[in-house]
């Protein structure tokens, strides 16, 4: 029993992380409101949560804003790419609904579905890679997609988390999940991604590195990831 109430217990650390997710979710919403900052705000969310999980130490929401500020300039192009790709996909799907099904219609719809799947898979990794690694945006996107295929099971699990949360909120009326919101999604994602990201970070920092400092700059490039 005493071990259970030890605050170094993994259960308490996990619950502490959930509380952090509640606070950081509010920070994420505020910083994402202009939309063009959603890339930097999401990267900061993953960076702060993953750094806490890797180092098993307390996390402070101030580190979120530090990471957000560091990633803001480079994050705007990422945000614009995501907004443009999402808008193009939705516009294409909406336009297809105005036409009668034909072989050409089916081909375009198939392309849309493939494009949507590639984008969905890539988004599971691109923010955390953007947060920790310094490289051209195109290289980070490419690496994110290849990692999503290589770790297919983890990718599907990360996709399932927000879906299950949406089902719980809408159908089971478990509205308490709205409080941590996307912060909880990112927190669970970080646990799933830890075995994938930690070796890459250690490789970038050097084999002797055991921790990742939130204040440290991005370290590695595309060539070191795959």
Characterise the protein shown here:
The chain contains 7 helices and no strands. With 226 residues, it is an all-alpha fold. The protein has one domain (10-224). α4 (103-132) packs across α7 (181-205) and α6 packs antiparallel against α7 (181-205). The protein is globular and about 60 Å long.
Short description, anyone?
The protein has 226 residues and is mainly alpha-helical.
Q: What's the helix and strand layout?
A:
Layout: H1 10-32, H2 38-55, H3 61-96, H4 103-132, H5 137-150, H6 152-170, H7 181-205
Q: What is the residue-averaged pLDDT? A: 84
Q: Which secondary-structure class do the elements indicate?
A: mainly alpha
| Total separate domains | 1
Task: Report the sheet-strand fraction.
Answer: under 5%
- Topology, number of strands: 0
Poorly predicted runs are 1-7
Q: With helices defined by DSSP (H or I, 4 residues minimum), what is the helix count?
A: 7
Radius of gyration: 19 Å
What form results from the Cα inertia axes?
Answer: globular
